[in-house]
Amino acid sequence: MTVLSDKPRATRTDAEPRIDVPALEGVLLGRWADARREVRALLKDERLHRVEGQTMAEHRETVLAQLRLLAQEGDVLRAFPTALGGADDHGGSLARFEEVLVADPSLQIKAGVQWGLFASAILHLGTEDHHERLLPGAMSVDVPGAFAMTETGHGSDVASIGTTATYDPATEEFDLHTPFRAAWKDYLGNAALHGTAAVVFAQLVTGGVNHGVHAFYVPIRDEGTGEFLPGVGGEDDGLKGGLNGIDNGRLHFTHVRVPRRDLLNRYGAVAADGTYSSPVASPGRRFFTMLGTLVQGRVSLHGASLNAAKLGLVVAVTYGNQRRQFRGGTQDEVLLLDYAEHQRRLLPRLAQTYAATFAHERMLRQFDAVFSGRADTDTDRQDLETIAAALKSTTTWHALDTLQTCREACGGAGFLAENRIVGLRADLDVYATFEGDNTVLLQLVAKRLLADHAKEFADLDAGAVARYVAERAADAALHRTPLLRVVQTLADGGDVRRSAGHLRDTETQRELLTDRVETMVAEVAQALRPAMKAPREEAAELLNTHQHALIECARAHADLLLWEAFTAGLATVEDEGTRTVLTWLRDVFGLTVIERNLAWYLIRGRLSGGRARTVTSYVDRLLTRLRPHAQDLVDAFGYAPEHVRASIADGSEERRQDEARDHYRRLRASGQDPVPEKSAGR
Amino acid sequence: MTVLSDKPRATRTDAEPRIDVPALEGVLLGRWADARREVRALLKDERLHRVEGQTMAEHRETVLAQLRLLAQEGDVLRAFPTALGGADDHGGSLARFEEVLVADPSLQIKAGVQWGLFASAILHLGTEDHHERLLPGAMSVDVPGAFAMTETGHGSDVASIGTTATYDPATEEFDLHTPFRAAWKDYLGNAALHGTAAVVFAQLVTGGVNHGVHAFYVPIRDEGTGEFLPGVGGEDDGLKGGLNGIDNGRLHFTHVRVPRRDLLNRYGAVAADGTYSSPVASPGRRFFTMLGTLVQGRVSLHGASLNAAKLGLVVAVTYGNQRRQFRGGTQDEVLLLDYAEHQRRLLPRLAQTYAATFAHERMLRQFDAVFSGRADTDTDRQDLETIAAALKSTTTWHALDTLQTCREACGGAGFLAENRIVGLRADLDVYATFEGDNTVLLQLVAKRLLADHAKEFADLDAGAVARYVAERAADAALHRTPLLRVVQTLADGGDVRRSAGHLRDTETQRELLTDRVETMVAEVAQALRPAMKAPREEAAELLNTHQHALIECARAHADLLLWEAFTAGLATVEDEGTRTVLTWLRDVFGLTVIERNLAWYLIRGRLSGGRARTVTSYVDRLLTRLRPHAQDLVDAFGYAPEHVRASIADGSEERRQDEARDHYRRLRASGQDPVPEKSAGR
Questions:
Q1: Domain range for residue A261?
Q2: Which residue intervals make up region (Disordered) (chains A, B) (predicted)?
C-alpha cells in the first residue's frame, strides 16, 4: 500500500465503514500477486522509465536498451516451455507483462512485439525444429523480430492479405512476394530499424491451390550492417500519436526465397514435393486456430489499459483531495473532490476500473487454464476469445475516456508532461484499434451472441447469418455454449418492474442487466430472420442495417460481464468494511450502466418513469457515501511514487496550500492584512 | 471548393438532391468569407506549417519565427484601432485568427497570446499613454509578451490570486510581489523563453485597501541578453501534451518596483498620493468588466476548435469513401463509409460541426457588434459572454470527441503523425480547460439561466442564490434578458406529445429542445428554493447537491443554441437541393440530441415509448440518405490539400485500391490465379 499523501485526512479517518487498504490491495492483485509485486519492484528502477522529451530516435534506442535490460533482469520468459528455459507460467507471465506499462507503454508494447507476437508465433505456430533453431534468438532479443501480419490494405480482414508465398518444389523454397503497394506489411514494431527477422504472414500457394494465410520465418536485415537483405525493402512509419519508443515500419518482399523448413508448420505443412497437409481440415477453422494464439495480446492489452486508467485515477483523485478552488460556505476553499460534479466525473470511472479489474482476473485465469492445457477445448478457447474481444474493446475505450477525464480534472497541470496523464493517453490511443479494432471486435461478440441465441429457436435457421458470420469472422457453428451462461449463474426471474425499487439489490441489478442483453439479442435476431434465406447480397444489407444494434448488444454484454465479475469479486473480500464500500462502488457501476441506458428500460416497460428518476438520485447518494473512501480506493491499487511519478500527486500541492494558508494567517495576525474595498469605509 | 479525390464518385453523381458545393462553401464561410479566403491562401505557405517531429526547442523557435512572419504578412492587426495601424475590424480579425489553426495550432495560440491577450490587454485595460508607449512593440512582436493572470494555485478562481501590487506614494511605484509558491504565475505562453514583458494581474493595494485584481505592464527580461530582470524569476513548464511550439512557463516577482503609470488604468486608477478611483463603482462588477475583454479568447477558441473538427472530418470522410475492408454481398470489398456503424460514428459529428459553424457565425456577429460599439450595452456583453461560455465548452469537447472518432475511423493509419489527426487532437486537448475550464463555464451558463428564471417568479427571492452567484461568478443582478429569448423566437406551444410523431418537423424539434431547457431550469430552481433564505454554508451545500443538474441545464441550453443557429442558417441557403440535404443534417443533429436525452423525455411524458423508439430508426434512415452527400459536405469546408496535408486523404488510398484490383483482374485473366483450397478438388 502506498499513501501518496503523508497527512492524515479527515475525510478518511471520519469515514465509517473503513477500507482495509493492504487487504484490498491483495485482493486486486489477484492470483498472481507475487508476480505483480516482483515486477513492480523492478519497475521502480529509473533505468526502465520513460524519459520525457526525448526525440523519436532517442526514445527508440532507449526502449531497445530497456528491452534488453528486461530480457536480462525481468524474468520475461515465463510463458515459454520449461524445456526451453521458460516456466510454462502463462497467467503469471501476462500479469507481469501488463505491469510493464507503468515504466513506459512503449517498453510494454516493444516487449509485446518481441515476446508476445514474434517469439510467441514461433512457439505456437512452429514446431520442434523452429523452437530449437529460432526461439533462443527471439527469446534473448539477439534477434529482434517483427510480426508481419497487417498490410497497408488489410488490417482487420487478415484473411484477405495480398502477400503470397508460392512453393517451388524444384528448390524446396517458397517465393515470398508483395504483389502491389497495398500488400506492404505495415505498422510493424521492430520493422523500421531494429528487426533482423520477421514472422511474415502470406497466402500459401502450392500446386496452384491457395491454402490461405500461413506464417513464415524470414530474416530481413543483415545483423552486422543493419541493411535490408536482398529482396526485402521497407519504410519507416515515422512519428506517431504515441508509443514513439517503438520503431514501427513497413516491409515488402520482392521474390524472396524462403526455405521450406521456415514455414511455421504446426497447422499446415508442405512436403518436399509440394503436397499440402494440415491437422485442421477446414480452411476457415484452421485460419481461426492460427489467429487464436493472438488472444493473449487482447487479454494483456485489457490488463495494461486498465493499469493506465488506474494511474490516471491515482493522480486525479490524489490531486482532487489536495487541490482547492473557490470558496464554498466556509472560510476555506473547497477541495475539488468535494464538488458533486468532480465526484460524478471521477468516481463512476473508478467504479468501472474496479469492475474491469475483477473481470480481468477472471479472464486471466481462463487464459491460464486454456494455455496451460488444463481447460483447452474448442469451446474454452472460443469463450476466451469472445470474452477477450468484449473486454479489450470496452476497457481500452474506458481507459482513454478515464485518462482524458483525469487530465481535465487536473486542469492545466494535467496537460504538463511531468504529470504523466497526457503521455499515457497518447500512448493508449492506438490500443482502441490495434490487436483487433474495437468496433470489429464488438461485432464478433455480437455474432457469437446471435449464434448462441439462434439455435435455441427451432424455427430460426442460423443458415445465412451463420454462413455470413463463418466466412468473415469466426466459425459460428462451433459456438455451442450460450455465452451468458458462461459468465453468470442466471438468477430466478421475478418481476423486474416490482423489484426495480430495490435498485441497490444485487438481483435487481442482475435482472436488469441480463434482461437487456437477452432482449436486445432476441430483437436483433428477430429482425435478422429474413436474412436467413435471403440471397447473400440482401442478407449483407440487412445485417448492415442492424450493425449498430448488434454492436449495442455486444456493449450490453460487456457491461454484464464486468458487473458479474465485480459482484463475484465482492464475495472474495473478507473485511466487512471493505466489502460494504466495494458494494457501493459496484452499485455505482451497475446503476450508471442502467442510467446510461435508461431510455431502453423505459421504452420496454422494465422501469417506470418514477423508478427511473430514482436511479440518478441514488447514484448521487452513493457518490456522496463513496467520496471519503476515494483516496483509499486508489491507494489500494498499490502503486509507489516511483510508479506514479506525477508531480501534482506527490504531496506538493498540499504543501503549497498549507504555505498559502500560513501566509494569510500570519498576515491577519500581523494586522497588515489589507481590507477588501467593499468592506472599507463602512 | 476542393475535391480531394479526383475521381468521379458514383455516390455523388447518383445522389438526388445534389449539393451546390461552391455555394455551400460560401454560406459556411459567412460574413467574413473574404478574410477567411485571404488568410487561407496565405496559410498554404509551407513556411507557416507545423514540421512534425521537431523537438520542443526547435518547435518553439520555428513558431516564434512564424509569428514574426505572420506579423509581417498576415494582416494580424485588424482588431486594433485604425489610429494605431489597425482596422477596427473585430469580427474579421477573429475570423482570420481562427483559420491559423490549419497551419499549426501552436502558431494560432502563440498569436493568441501575443495579440489576443498581451497586446489586447494593453488596448482594452490600458489608456492612451499605454497605447502610445506600449502597444507598438506588442503589435509588432518587438516585445513578445506574456499574459500573467493564472497562478499555480488559482486558475478558474482569478479573483483569489495571491500576487499583490502595493502602492508606495513615496516613490510613486507599485511593489509587485509573489508571497508564496502557489502565487507563481503559471502556464503562460511566452514566459519560459521569449517574453520580454508581461501584463501581470495582481491584487491592487493602496492605503491599506485591497481594490481587487488589476493589470500591470511589467518588463521581465533584458531584451539583449534574454536574462530575467532583477526581482523576476521563473521556470519552464517543459513538455506538454500538445502545443509544444509555445514556451509556457512560470513567473514570480520579488518586490519588483512598477512605476505608477504602468498600471493599466482604464477601470481603476491610482493617483500620485495613492487615492484609488474607478469608473465602475462595484468591485465585483469592475472585476467582471475587466475580465469581460477575455471573451474574444472564448469566441475564437470556439471557431478554432471547430476548424480542427472540420479537418478531422475531411480526413476521415475522404478516407472512408476510398478505403475498403471486408467483402459484403458483392465481389468488391465494402467502402468503410457504407457500413452503418461508420456512418453512425461520423455523420452525427458532422451534423454537430455544421450546427456549431452556424452558431459560430452568429456569435461572431454578436462579438463584432459588441466590440465595434454598435451594440455594446451591459446586456449585450453579458449575453455574448454567456453564449461564448456555452459554445466554447460544448465545441471544444465536441472537437476532441470528433478528432478521436476520426482517428479511430482511420485505424492504424489514423495514428500516424503524417495523417495529422493525432497531432490536432493532442494540441486541442487543453482547449477544454484553458480560457475558462469547460465545467466552470457551464456553471456560469447555468447560473445565468437560473437568474433569468428566478425573477419571473414573484415568490422566489433570488437573494441567497443571486448573492452566491454574484460573489463567485458573475453579477447576476445585471442579467435582465431571459437568455432563451435572445437565442430564439419561441414557437407557439401546441401539444408536444401529439406532434412528436412528426420528428422531422422543425417546430416539434424546437419544442422538445426548448421545453427541456425550461423544465430543467424550473426543476433546479424549485429544488434550490430552500437555499434562498438558508445560511451561506447550507446554501452552498444545496447548490453543490444540484451541481450536476445545473451543468446538465447548461448543456441542454447549448444544444438548443446550436440547433437554433443551424435552423436559422437553413433559411440562408438558396439552392433547394443543398437546403434539403442540410435539413436532413439539421434533423440528424436535433434528433441525436433528443436520442441522447430520450430517458428525460420519457420520464416526463414528453414522448411515449412508441414515439421514442422511432427516434433511433428515423436517425438511421436519415444517415442512409445523407451518406451519398458526405463527401460534398466535407468538401464544402473549402480546405485545399495544402491545408489538410494528410497522406491518407490525398487520393493515394484510392490509387492503392485500384492497383490491387487491377492485379487480381490481370491474375484472373492470366489463368494463373490459385484456386482457394475450399474450391479445390471439387
A1: 148-283
A2: 648-682
